[in-house]
Write a structure and sequence with these properties.
Shape: elongated
Number of strands: 2
Strand content: 5-15%
Number of helices: 3
Strand order of the largest sheet: 1-2
Order of helices and strands: EHEHH
Mean pLDDT: 86
């Protein structure tokens, strides 16, 4: 999917989208305008609206998505972000945080997009 493919398309906005401003600038630079037709801070509602055909939305690559939601990468231009997890070595964590950190360290990030 390219920015130009989304020109004049209906857009379902995730209010908590941390890339909304950045993506908007990229779309403007590419000459692509979208029409916001729905806004929500609830990802499940946004995904439901997209699945109902009311518009497209941006969802992070590793986000939990609803079954049946069609997902396509934006390839031109590609939008990427870096996420960091920081902990203090030796500090005790609740079991869920420890499990999360172990999973992050065990995941093969280099092969994630292949």
């Amino acid at each position: 999917m390219r920015c130009g493919d989304l020109h004049d398309q209906a857009y379902v906005n995730r209010l908590q989208c941390e890339f909304f401003g950045h993506a908007g600038r990229i779309f403007r630079e590419q000459g692509a305008k979208t029409r916001i037709v729905f806004r929500s801070d609830r990802d499940d509602w946004v995904q439901s609206m997209a699945m109902a055909g009311l518009g497209f939305t941006f969802i992070p690559e590793y986000a939990v998505t609803m079954p049946g939601l069609r997902v396509r990468p934006l390839i031109d231009p590609e939008i990427v972000r870096t996420i960091q997890v920081v902990t203090v070595r030796g500090r005790p964590h609740v079991p869920s945080v420890g499990a999360f950190v172990r999973e992050i360290l065990a995941f093969s990030w280099a092969n994630a997009s292949a």
